Amino acid sequence: MTKQKIKRSWDDRLFYILDTILLLFMILIVILPLMHVISVSLSNSGAVSAGKVLIFPVGFNLNAYKTLLNTKSITTGMTNTIYYTVMGTVLNIFMTIICAYPLSRKNLPGKKFILWIFTFTMMFGGGLIPSYLNIRNLGLLNTRWAMIIPGAMSVWNMIITRTFFMNSIPDELIEAGEIDGASDFQCFMRLVLPNSTTIIAIMALFYAVGHWNQYYTAMLYLNKPELYNLQLVLRNIIASTQALMEQTDNIAAAEKTAETIEVLKYAVIVFTSLPIMLFYPFLQKYFVKGVMVGSLKG
Amino acid sequence: MAETTSRAQQVPSNRLSPARKQCRLALRRWQLYLMLLLPLIYIIIFNYIPMFGIQLAFKNYNARLGIWGSPWVGFKHFQNLFKSAMFGRLMYNTISLSLFGLIAGFFPPIILAIAINETNYPKLRKITQLVTYAPHFLSVVVVTSIVMQLLSGTGIVNTLIANAGGNTINFLGDPKKFKTIYIISGIWQGVGYDAIMYIAALTAISPELYEAATVDGANIWQRIWNVDIPSIMPTAIILLIMSTSKVLNVGFEKVYLLQNSLNQSSSEIISTYVYKMGLVNTEYGFSTAVGLFQSVVSMILLVFVNTISRKVTETSLW
């Protein structure tokens, strides 16, 4: 008996040691590349090209960021991204809520069919070319609307919101409102919306992150540099050094240009992800919540 | 429906037929239908109208005649696709990329979730979750940019190799390394997020089950094997079904962003090919046909995998 007990605790101890090692390993795997990228962006370009920068900055300076804020394509991209994110998210929230609420109510004739109209699009779609031609026919190509209207609502997020309405807004509340003579609109505005701040916050974050990180739509539908969002600008900078060299005229020494541009690339990567990372602790909390709401069967 | 006592049911309507009852109920609910109007218009314009564009797969697109007016060509585009030299390579690249990704990416989130769930240090648990979940929020462009920068000729990886006395490697220029780069960066970005569902399943296990296992003399390894693993199996199977059906739907963005002329022989997949054929070469009909082929095969796979899973494991999507 004692022998067995000792053996068991030895097994357990081995497990906990391995477990801790594994978790620390995972943390390092994720964090080291990110620290390297940030450090390079803050380092002296000479030290970077000499390969001296690992996970801490060498010759700390903010030159790359100063150059970056003076580069027109980047500031334009930033303004555009903020515009697309704010406008897009507002429209998303509006569409998602007005769609999810009716579909969450009991005894709405035809509800099943209407719901099916929405969910079917998650399984089947027209594909790239028909969608592209559709956007072109609507005259949205190369307009700011192309970044906002085609993605006005995600059916998946609508389903999550609907699940929230069904599970978290008690039927008694709405029934009480109806008995008091409130119309469906009034019930929605006065009883449902004030109790839905959680799901609205979750959805706003879901959508806002999506808009901020949007690349595909921008690449397909935007052809004018003045409409480009930050992701598209970042991609162009990484893909071609040339584009950036033409725009950064405040770099003097010709032989230093390649080195400086290299550091600048890292700085743009950091700059593009900065808002996401600043909001991250906040995002994490709500995203986990959102994943959980979504996993509940409706 | 019978248990609710909304005003609609309080109306004495015993004499009305069920159809008319539904009509009355619907009329009373007009405000709810009004709310649905805008989303319905949206979904029709941006999702259903493009579905009619699928006919392009059987037509020779002519800009002047439009989608409806262009002449029919039957299955010509499909025949061209199946006969073309690209077809075999496209299928191989797409399927191998997603299958290897599926196999390599299946266990890490499960292992991470169990490790997080079982640790004795609440702080470590929190930090690991916070950190491993973070890359999920980085955009595809940022992640591919990081990959390209770190693996470039002057990047940190080659610098370390050179310092150790090795020869620098052109990672992204080598078709043989493309899959590995794609899959490992995918796991790096997604493991924390993928673990969430498993962590949720693990925290839902009742403590009594663990106590019972401990009373029976199980050590922690046996407890994981006999309690943890079985309780996350349904989640794992659902996720597996969903990913298997997407075996042809390898995301366009990341592959496209990591692609270059040197690694193209292993990085050209169906979706990047559809993009190039369609929007770069403007062969709208052919490109639509390739896309349609992909979505039809995916739907068939989904139904097939789901049926098998329902029979074998009694877990299914529908």
Identify the notable features of this structure and list them briefly.
heterodimer; A: 298 residues; mainly alpha; MetI-like fold; 2 domains; 15 helices; B: 318 residues; 16 helices; 73% helix; 0% strand; globular; disordered N terminus
What's the CATH C level of the largest domain in chain A? Mainly Alpha
Low-confidence stretches of chain A: 251-255
Mean pLDDT of chain A: 87
What share of residues are in beta strands of chain B? under 5%
Supply Rg of chain A: 26 Å
Number-wise, the strands of chain B total: 0
Number of domains of chain A: 2
Described by strand count, sense and barrel closure, the largest sheet of chain A is: none
* CATH architecture level-2 label of chain B: Orthogonal Bundle
Query: Quick one: which chains have the greatest interface?
Result: A-B, 97 and 97 residues
CATH topology of the largest domain in chain A: MetI-like fold
Write the CATH fold name of chain B. Answer: MetI-like fold
Describe this structure in a few short sentences:
The complex is a heterodimer of chains A (298) and B (318). Chain A contains 15 helices and no strands.
Descriptive notes:
The complex is a heterodimer of chains A (298) and B (318). Chain A has helices at 2-41, 45-49, 63-69, 72-104, 111-123, 128-137, 155-168, 171-179, 184-192, 197-212, 216-221, 230-239, 241-247, 257-278, 280-295. Chain A is an all-alpha fold and 298 residues long. By secondary structure, chain B is an all-alpha fold. Chain B has one domain: MetI-like (MetI-like fold). In chain B, 73% of the residues lie in helices and 0% in strands. Chain B has helices spanning 7-10, 18-28, 30-52, 66-69, 76-83, 85-118, 122-133, 140-151, 156-163, 175-203, 207-215, 220-245, 252-258, 264-267, 270-280, 284-313. Chain B starts with 6 loop residues before the first helix and ends in a 5-residue tail after the last helix. The interface between A and B is large, with 97 and 97 residues.
